[in-house]
Each structure stands twice: as structure tokens, then as C-alpha cells.
Amino acid sequence: MVASDAQKTQYATEHWFREQGLPYFVQPRNRGRRLLARCAPMLLFLAMSSFAWSLYAHSSAIQLISDEADSEFDLGPGQAVLLLSMPIAVVLLPVLLAIVGRRFLARHRGWARLVSAGAIVTLLLINPLVAIGSRESSWGIEFSSNLITVLLVLGLAWLGIGSFLGWSVRAAVRQLSAIWLLAAIALPLLMLVVIFAFYSQETWQMTAGLQRGQIFWLLVFLLATGLLFVVYSARKELRDLPASLTEESRAELRGGTPLALVDELPGGAGEGWQGLNRAERANVVWVLVLAQCFQVLIFGLLVFSFLMVLAMLSVPEPLAVQWSGQAAVPLQMFGLNLPIGQAPVRVCAFLAAIAALNFVVSVNSSKAYRDAFFDPLIEQTSRALAVHAAYQSRFCRPEPGPDAPQDPVRKPGLSAPDDIVDA
Q1: Is-contact 137 56, C-beta < 8 A?
Q2: In whole angstroms, what is the distance from residue 83 CA to residue 87 CA?
Q3: Do 150 and 215 belong to one domain?
Q4: What is the extent of the structural domain holding 43?
Q5: What is the pLDDT of residues 222-271, one digit of tens each?
């Protein structure tokens, strides 16, 4: 019974690591554990999406999309409804079902394995049969592409990439809830400088004089500079972190995790940052870096939206032409002319990138910014290191002899509320 509880605790801890975007904290021999059940949401999405696409491959909607040379093709009401329903059936509904089913499948591993098996059967047997006779696909193409897709999903999940990508999506959604914090703390401190540059004629002239490729690489250069600073500051913070992670603080940080009531055993595999191998260190660094990148991206989009509204309200087209020194040219996207001028978009994008770079520097230097945006990330990283120390000492030690006493381990639930980017 004790051994069974210990195994459940170990699995719950490994599940917690994957939820935090730290798949390389799991022992290598356990990375393939319950692989099929863990891939159930993604396989369910792929099976439903592929099945819907196979059905649409027989319809006139696919003919309308693929037959670009036939300009006389008339679109009837039924075909219009069919065409509009395609993105819903192929993308939206499978995504919603996978998201809703994720929590249920995480708690019911038997159902998760059953769903994964059914999804694989659908991808490898049913969908190729449905594709027979369609003009867009064939049995061989459908089977080979679906087989490669299934193997790719299982391989990425085993490597931990699937866990990291899933965490990235959840982290991005969680960061959206912090927009009010960005607007209340970060945005007012930068608006005076940004607005002053926005109403400067030299800024409009400089951005208008650049070619489209030049403005793109300028934005890439500014964002890459910010990324290098984020990586450097993250590594520096993590190197200094072990000094504050005493045994008592690690026990307190494990509260609310699967190892909340579990103490570290003496002689563990290592504590804190110094106890991590190269892959584990890289995993921690890039989780922290990516969490900051989401903050910077959302802040940049917030500044860009604010400046675009400001441009529409206060910079009429004749004034924009005068400042930029060029005739008004509409913004083109996907071959369509949008009712927005290129000059305001270029100015707003350039100033948003400058503001985002300033935000990166301020987050790592200003105390007000650190308290609001950076310290919560460091606290969650400390919690992950504290859990990892107990996990290493409990489950990565040599197997005890038959006469060695067993340590009772608490039987936890699978839910782990905290995320490394919970803002």
C-alpha cells in the first residue's frame, strides 16, 4: 500500500512538473510513462479535425477553393453555408472539445487511453477510407500523413516538447488577465516619452523612409536585443537564487503542491539550481524567458493599440502626409487594401517596439516593475526548484534494501493550482 501511494505521489509530481512547463524535471525513464493517455487531447483534436476535412473533401466547398481558374463558378446559398461552416467544423469545434475534455481526461486515465486509441483508429483507418474518391486526397496520402502525425505527436510528447507547448498556450492565456496590471502600472510610466516621440515629425520621416524589409528587420533587431537582455537577466537571477532556498524555505514553498507534506531526505541528488543538470537548467531558463516574452508581447500590443487609436483621433491624413513626406498609401495584407495608412502603422509599430524594449529593462531594474512583473516569476521558479529537490531526494535515490524502512508518503490529488507565470 505504501509503495502504491509512493507511485501515485511520484506520478502526481511529474504531472505537476509538466503542468509548469518543466518536462525535463521528470526522470528520463519516466518520460514515456502513460504517454498515450497524456496525448489524448491532441489526438482527439487531430482525429476530429482530420475527419471533418475528409468529409469536406467530397463537397463543392473544396471544389470552390481549389478551382481558382474557374471564375464563372456560381456559389449557391447551400454552398455558401457549407463554405462558412468549414473553419468551424475543421478547427473551432475540435479545439473546444479538446480543451473541455482535457481536464476530464487528466483525471480519468482509462478514458484517456480509450480516447487515444479511438483517435488513432480514426486517423489511420477511418479517415483514409472516407478520403477515397475525393479530388483532394487519396487513401495512401491520407494514411501516410496521419501515421506521420501520430508518430510526431507521440515523439514530441516523449521529448517534453508537447508539454512545453501546452504550457506556453496556457501561459499566454493567463498573461492576458494581467493586461489591467500592465495598463495601470507600466503603461503610464512610458506614455509621456512615447507620446512625445509620436508627435515628432522626425519619427514619421524616419519610418516612412524605410522600405518594408528594413522596418521589419529594425523591429527584429530591437526585439532580439530585448530577448538577449531577458536571457542574461534570467540566468543571473537563477544563479543567485540558491542562496535564499534554505531547507525551511523549500518546505514552505512546496505548500499546495503534490509534495506539500513530504520532507526532503538527506543525501539527495542535489538542491536548487546547483542540483540541476544541463537539460533541466535550460528548461528552467527558457520557461522563465518565455514567460517574460509573453509579458513583453502583450505590453507591446497594448502600446501599439493605444498609439493607433491616438493616430486615428489626432493625426488626420493630410497631416500624416506632411509629416512623413510621402503620399498616403493604404496598408496591404494578404493582397487586400485595408482602410489604414502605412505611415501611422509604421510609426506605431516602431514606438511600440521601443516601449517594449524599455519595459524589458525596467522590469529587471526598477523595484516597482520587479515587484509587479518579475518577482512572481522568480517565486514560482523557486517553488519548482523546491519541489524538484524533494522529488530528487525521494524518487531518484538508489533502491533501498529489503530491510530498509519505508517512508510514508502523502497521497495527493492530481490538481496543481499554481503555474510558473500565474500573474
Answers
A1: no
A2: 8
A3: no
A4: 32-65+76-159
A5: 888 988 888 888 888 777 776 567 777 777 788 888 887 776 666 554 45
pTM summary value:
0.69
- Distance between CA 49 and CA 34 in Å, rounded? 24
The distance from CA 270 to its chain's CA centroid, rounded to whole angstroms, is 29
pLDDT at res. 107: 76
| Three-state secondary structure call for residue 421 | coil
- Dist CA 274 CA 72 (whole Å): 69
Instruction: For residue range 207-235, list pLDDT tens digits in order.
Output: 888 887 888 898 889 888 988 888 888 88
* Residue 10 domain flag: no
Distance CA 101, CA 138 (A): 31
Interatomic CA distance for residues 50 and 205, integer angstroms: 49
Q: Are 325 and 255 in contact (CB under 8 A)?
A: no
Beta bridge partners of 330: 341
- Examine the domain organization and report whether 99 and 244 are in the same domain: no
Render 291-336 in DSSP notation, one character per residue: HHHHHHHHHHHHHHHHHHHHHHHH--HHHHHHHHTS---EEEETTE
Instruction: Show Cβ contacts of residue 122 under 8 Å, excluding neighbours closer than 6 positions.
Output: 47, 50, 51
Residue 79 has pLDDT above 60, yes or no: no
Q: What is the 3-state secondary structure (H, E, C) of 309-320?
A: HHHHHHCCHHHH
Please give the radius of gyration of the chain, using alpha carbons only, rounded to the nearest integer: 26
Q: Which grid cell sits at 128? A: 483514409
Q: Which three cell numbers stand for residue 6?
A: 509512493
Phi then psi for 75, rounded to 5 degrees? -100, 105
Task: For CA atoms 368, 369, 370, 371, give the dihedral sign.
Answer: positive
| Side-chain-side CA neighbours of residue 408 (13 Å) | 2
DSSP letter, residue 266: T
Query: pLDDT at residue 319 above 80?
Result: yes
* DSSP, res 272: G
The tens digit of pLDDT for each residue in 5-54 reads: 777 888 888 888 888 888 888 888 887 888 888 888 888 888 888 887 77
Tell me, yes or no, whether 420 lies in a domain: no
* In contact, 24 and 160? CB cutoff 8 Å: yes
Q: What is the count of structural domains for the chain?
A: 2
Decide: helix, strand or coil at residue 354: helix
Taking alpha carbons only, the member of 23, 43, 163 closest to residue 105 is 43
